[in-house]
């Protein structure tokens, strides 16, 4: 029987306090709210100085347009359609990009095969992908979603590949000796190591994906926020552009704050708990 | 050597890979049977860890062969290698084959003095505690071969003695072959049935001593004398826990 010493020092190497995220204090939240109020004030003063609702409408004018679009149902409908496209394209890019990135990170041979494709994918202008998808597949949702997914996938592959390359070889040894099943190895050993990279790919991926979706809609869809922005642009309706643009951006921020950030914190929780 | 061999290791040569591959081990042949405690001694850098990696099947880039009888292998590396995102109990459960009845995890943790640590994460443990958790994990698979690389480093005298007793008890009762790399000759004499010495450049198996039963004081002294005479560097190693004077070993120790 091994006795436990009364007091054991904590090994400094086993702690990783550096990754602990700074806590959001009340003062921090107050500063953020103040900053937002200053932005609104600058906008309001700018609108007064411009004295042209067509060029720069005031916040309350944009709010009025927002409420009108909300009541008519146009805004919720178009936002829902755009969100659906974002969700499908984002999910597709994350799944395909994660699988390819994992394989590329674990197999030098697969990496050598896929690397030239990645280089092309990363350097091809998004606009070219969108236009080609519409020409080859047609002006439909399949083309729209595929174009966004294709444009986004290479960056997911690169991020996840880095994560898979950074796997701890000591844990690989352990998995071999203890004959861990493939499923257990993936779930218990690989995914926790990959989680911070998945979270990073997810966060940057979402913000890029929704911007590309707007472009895709602007170029070739008959609905969605991107289509509406184009319509408002042709009507030179700056209030409508701001109402759509700001409300959609707000929704994406909420999605990030309520879904992605908590998941990222959970994925990294074991690092901070030490 | 009673019974069939659990481990049959034949290394004609092992070279480190690189621009100028240097031979690190040459002509290391030995067999070990169930229930044996085999201590592997040698200078730092003599190739003890390399030999253990070969025995574990982690290093196949060598000239020779390694045969392992059926059964699970438990390992305690120099670093604990616990998964930091799992609790101590989950780390133990992880290595147990799916579908096999789960071992008594509280009892395993109690055996290494970690009964209160089941729900803690490795980041909350000291290095010594983490190493003991790694020992409990190795025992959780009920191993036929238990390989330990310098398991007594960073343990105080009492804990090191206790771990030595646990290993000898395991070998006696469960017929586990225990292969342990260490550097302290006194501690090796206290726990091992056989002492292998890796020596030379490249290192070869320079000695294979059978250690007499513990109550054969003169026999143990003879082996000690022979070891220290042939391998003076062993005397220069830091004194270990001096298990001969420790009651913990007497209760769980050798026949």
Describe the protein in words.
The complex is a heterodimer of chains A (274) and B (255). Chain A is mainly α and 274 residues long. Chain A has one domain (66-269): MetI-like (MetI-like fold, Orthogonal Bundle), CATH 1.10.3720.10. In chain A, helix 4 packs across helix 6 (141-165) and helix 8 (182-220) runs antiparallel to helix 10 (238-267). The radius of gyration of chain A is 24 Å and the shape is globular. Mean pLDDT of chain A is 86; it is low at 1-21. Chain A has helices at residues 26-50, 59-72, 74-106, 108-123, 126-137, 141-165, 169-177, 182-220, 225-234, 238-267, 269-273. Helix content of chain A is 80%, strand content 0%. Chain B has 255 residues and is of the alpha/beta class. Chain B has two domains: 7-71 and 144-252, P-loop containing nucleotide triphosphate hydrolases (Rossmann fold, 3-Layer(aba) Sandwich); 83-141, no CATH class. Chain B has nine helices and nine strands. In chain B, the strands form two sheets. A six-stranded mixed β-sheet of chain B has the order 5-6-7-3-8-9, sandwiched between helices. In chain B, helix 5 (157-174) links the parallel strand 6 (145-149) and strand 7 (177-181). In chain B, helix 2 (88-94) packs parallel to helix 4 and helix 3 crosses helix 4. Classes of the chains: A mainly alpha (274), B alpha/beta (255). Chains A and B meet through helix 7, helix 8 and helix 11 of A and helix 4 and helix 5 of B.
């Amino acid at each position: 029987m091994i006795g436990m010493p009364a007091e054991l020092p904590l090994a400094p190497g086993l702690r990783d306090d550096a990754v602990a995220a700074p806590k959001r204090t009340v003062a921090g939240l107050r500063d953020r709210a103040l900053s937002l109020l200053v932005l609104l004030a600058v906008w309001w003063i700018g609108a007064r100085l411009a004295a042209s609702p067509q060029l720069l409408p005031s916040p309350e004018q944009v709010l009025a347009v927002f409420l009108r679009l909300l009541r008519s149902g146009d805004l919720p409908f178009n936002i829902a359609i755009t969100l659906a496209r974002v969700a499908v394209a984002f999910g597709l890019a994350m799944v395909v990009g994660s699988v390819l990135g994992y394989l590329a990170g674990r197999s030098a041979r697969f990496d050598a095969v896929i690397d030239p494709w990645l280089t092309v994918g990363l350097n091809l202008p998004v606009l070219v992908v969108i236009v080609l998808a519409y020409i080859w597949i047609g002006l439909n949702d399949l083309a729209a979603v595929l174009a966004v997914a294709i444009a986004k996938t290479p960056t997911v592959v690169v991020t996840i590949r880095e994560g898979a390359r950074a796997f701890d070889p000591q844990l690989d040894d352990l998995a071999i000796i203890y004959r861990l099943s493939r499923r257990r190895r993936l779930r218990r050993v690989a995914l926790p190591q990959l989680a911070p990279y998945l979270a990073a790919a997810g966060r940057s991926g979402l913000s890029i994906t929704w911007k590309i979706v707007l472009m895709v809609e602007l170029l070739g869809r008959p609905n969605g926020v991107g289509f509406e922005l184009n319509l408002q642009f042709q009507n030179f309706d700056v209030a409508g552009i701001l109402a759509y643009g700001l409300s959609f951006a707000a929704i994406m921020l909420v999605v990030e704050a309520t879904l992605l950030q908590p998941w990222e914190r959970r994925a990294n929780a074991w690092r901070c708990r030490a | 050597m009673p019974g069939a061999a659990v481990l049959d290791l034949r290394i004609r040569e092992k070279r480190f890979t690189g621009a100028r591959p240097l031979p690190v081990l040459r002509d290391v042949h030995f067999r070990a049977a169930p229930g044996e405690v085999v201590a592997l001694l040698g200078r730092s850098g003599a190739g003890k860890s390399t030999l253990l990696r070969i025995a574990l099947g982690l290093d196949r880039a060598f000239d020779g062969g390694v045969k392992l009888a059926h059964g699970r292998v438990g390992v305690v590396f120099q670093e604990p290698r616990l998964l930091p995102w799992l609790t101590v109990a989950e780390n133990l459960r992880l290595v147990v084959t799916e579908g096999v009845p789960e071992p008594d995890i509280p009892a395993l943790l109690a055996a290494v003095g970690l009964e209160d640590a089941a729900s803690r994460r490795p980041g909350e443990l000291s290095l010594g505690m983490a190493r003991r958790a790694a020992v409990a994990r190795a025992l959780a698979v009920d191993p036929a071969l238990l390989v330990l690389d310098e398991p007594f480093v960073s343990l105080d005298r009492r804990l090191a003695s206790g771990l030595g007793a646990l290993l000898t008890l395991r070998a006696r009762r469960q017929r586990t072959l225990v292969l342990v790399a260490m550097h302290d000759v006194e501690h090796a004499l206290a726990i091992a049935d056989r002492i292998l010495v890796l020596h030379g450049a490249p290192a070869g198996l320079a000695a294979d001593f059978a250690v007499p039963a513990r109550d054969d004081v003169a026999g143990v002294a003879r082996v000690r004398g022979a070891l220290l005479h042939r391998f003076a560097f062993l005397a220069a190693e830091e004194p270990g826990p001096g298990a001969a004077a420790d009651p913990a070993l007497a209760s769980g120790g050798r026949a």
